[in-house]
Amino acid sequence: MQNKEGKPMQYRRLGNSGLQVSEIALGSFLTYGNATVYETAEACIDLAYELGINFFDTANAYAGGESEKVVGRVLSKYSRESYVLATKVFFPMGPRPNNRGLSRKHIFEQCHASLKRLGLDYIDLYQCHRYDEHTPVEETLQALDDLARQGKILYYGVSEWTAPQIAQASDMARARGFHPVTSNQPQYSMLARGIERVVIPACDREGVGQVVFSPLAQGILTGKYQPGHPPPAGSRASDPKQNMFIKNGLVDAYVHDRIPVTDELLERVQKLAPIAADAGLTMSQLALAWCLRQSNVASVIVGASRPEQVADNAGASGVHLSAEVLLQIDSALSIAMS
After folding, report:
1. pTM exceeds 0.85
2. What is the CATH number of the domain that holds 64?
3. Which of 11, 32, 49, 62 is catalytic?
4. pLDDT tens for residues 5-43?
5. Domain count across the chain
6. Is 62 part of the annotated catalytic residue set?
């Protein structure tokens, strides 16, 4: 797959590590093992691999472990060194008190459970799915470092941690001689820009790279949700298994950082369509390329329930947006420049 400039999939280093990940990653939240049948999931993953996507993201909590099983089964047909597999630990995997969090016990048990579900000997990137206020950070880092020294994981990262939490963990890892924090997985999109203020600068200083989720704002930035209309058939919002923001059949809720998704916002999003067309891009490609303008962003994680979505998203790799286009985007979304 080549973008409009004829470039193949591009790769970036993840933070200060030597690990190269594709600019576009394929995630499995709400899709594989849940709302998408195996054959469709297989078609999406196969096409992603064919198009040069080498980074696949899942989590133990997605569909109660079923997502890991699907992703591992499909990827088993490919040579292990040819892809990067990321999964996560934190959310409850059972009713008992030690079935959750970032304690040494839960991390060790869930790492081995994930390896079994994935059918792998090691995990490339093991991520703390959220911050655990009830477990000392040193206990969590020691457990991750031990897994790395055992060869069960190669790198570890965090997700949705604050800048001070990332800085504390990075400082402690250096002081204790642990393997370093390599990545952070936050939400980031044109509609959710919070990490730009503090998190990205902190991660730049610490050598931590971003692998961002929801770069299309749960599909809102694709332009398929029209103001005053119910979600189109076949969209994520029309599927009860995937719906994250629909109320009374209409788009009327919030993305993760509490930006209200109203008809007014959807009208502004529609103004992105001519900007994308003038740049020779789809709206999805415009949104993904916008995230990738940040050098600290190593990869954008997209979900796909159809192979054609994978192909469209892959076309955003290597696209450069001019300063003029970036200004047009901010103007369309009515975002003031500081």
Report:
1. yes
2. 3.20.20.100
3. 62
4. 457 999 999 999 999 999 999 999 867 777 678 999 999
5. 1
6. yes
